[in-house]
Amino acid sequence: MNDHQSSVKRRLPGWAKTVLAYIGGIITALLTLFLTNWLSLGESDLVYVGGEPPAAPTNAEVKVAGREIFFYVRIQPKLKNRGFKSGHVDSVEIKPVGLTPAPERVEVTFLDRKPLRIWETREIRCDFVAVIRFRFPDDPPEANQGYTTYEPGSTPPAADAMPPIEFGASFRGPDGRLIHWQATQIHMEVTPGSPPRTPQGRTP
Description:
- With 204 residues, the protein is of the alpha+beta class.
- The chain has 2 domains: 36 residues; 157 residues.
- The protein contains 2 helices and 11 strands, in the order H-H-E-E-E-E-E-E-E-E-E-E-E.
- A hairpin with a 5-residue loop joins strand 9 and strand 10.
- The C terminus is likely disordered.
C-alpha cells in the first residue's frame, strides 16, 4: 500500500469504515446464497421439463392369464439437470390412485439410472407391471373377484368400459428427495364374453 492510499484510509471516519464493512458483508452473503441455492453449486438439480400434463405412456399392454390381468406400462418423463454436478434418478415408487380394488402387486421392471450431465435433458424410462384380479362380464355372481362392469343378465351400454386403471409414479434421487410425480391412466374396453382388449394409455 503506497503513502497516498494509507493517507486516504486514515482520513476515513470510523462510521464510514463500519458502513463499508456492512455493505461488503451483505454482498458476500447474497453472492453465496445465489451460488449455493440458485445455481445449486456442487450438487445436481433434477427438474421435470416435459410440460403439463405429462406425456401419455409410450407403451401400454395387457395380458390375461386365468383371472389375473397383467398391465405392462412404460412412462418416460423428461428431466433436466440444472445443477453443476451430474445426478440421476435412484428409485421410483408406483402406487394406485383411486383404484378399487388395488393391484395384488406392482413391480418396477426397469428404471433408467444413468446420470444426467450438467444441463443435460433426457427422457427417463420407467417400465412397470401391475397385476389385478378381474371378473369377466358373463361370470356368475360367486366368481366376483375384482372389477364388475355390469351385472350378469343385464344389457351393457354400447362400448361399455371398465373404470380406468390409474397409477401415481414418484421419482426420487439418491437422497430420497422427490424429483417428479405424475399420474398415469390406462383405459381398457370390455365386451361381453371376451377377455379385455389391449388398453389405451393416457395421462389425465
